[in-house]
Amino acid sequence: MKNLGIDLRTMYLALPSNLLLFDGYEDSDIYRKYRNFIDDVINEIETHFSLPEYGILTLCEHPMKKRHQEGYERHLRINQRKTGDQKAGGMEYYYKEVLPLCTAGGCAITFDDGATPAGVFGELEWLYSNDRQIYLIHFLGDGSIEFHMTNPEEIKEKKLTIDETRKRLYNPIFPREKRELIPFVLPKGW
Q1: What is the pLDDT of residues 163-189, one digit of tens each?
Q2: How far is residue 53 from each of residues 28, 114, 126, 128, 140, measured CA to CA in Å?
Q3: Taking the CB of residue 65, how many other CB atoms lie within 10 A of it?
Q4: Which candidate, 29, 31, 93, places its Cα nearest to that of 61?
């Protein structure tokens, strides 16, 4: 998108869903920690991938925006109604409505051991197969970030299945309808 001599690009931030911030938790300590962490990551992405001296401004699109939560839920209901499967998800929303707008590519946060959640891998794979660059975010112990360009072939060994991802995200002692997210482990220095 060009506007007044500025090339405005969008970079997608893919992350494990136990880092997503949902309404109703704003007054909790964990919400504030995650919000500060995500705000810092977004700021780093926008700064790193913008080149103001060349008129290039990069904005970060991410799944924590309320409209994306609503879009996901809408696609979830449609898929469950269509298939009759209560495990059907809403990821289709991102593939159809969000990722096509992310012309600058995508960055991903993985689990602390480098394992890539199924949904995050799928988003990266979609971006890459549509000629967008993808990066893994590496957190350094001093609170700084490095971006490593990658491709799906390089990271597929650490890709989790949907079931493996769910086991990492949700406390197994709760039934599915009352499942509780396992807190995301923030990187050292954050």
Answers
A1: 999 888 886 665 555 567 777 888 887
A2: 40, 34, 30, 27, 28
A3: 11
A4: 93
User: What residues contact residue 105 under an 8 Å CB cut-off, 6+ apart?
Assistant: 11, 12, 127, 132, 133, 134, 135
pTM value is 0.86
Cβ atoms within 10 Å, residue 1: 11
Q: Which residues pair with 58 in a beta bridge?
A: 9
Query: If pLDDT is split at 50, 70 and 90, which confidence band does 73 have?
Result: confident
Unique residue bearing structure tokens 């992310």: 102
CA distance 148 to 79: 34
Mapped onto helix, strand or coil, the DSSP state of residue 3 is strand
Tokens of 181: 């997210």
Question: Which pLDDT tens digit goes with each residue over 101-129?
Answer: 999 999 999 998 999 999 999 999 999 99
Please give the single-letter amino acid code of residue 25.
Answer: Y
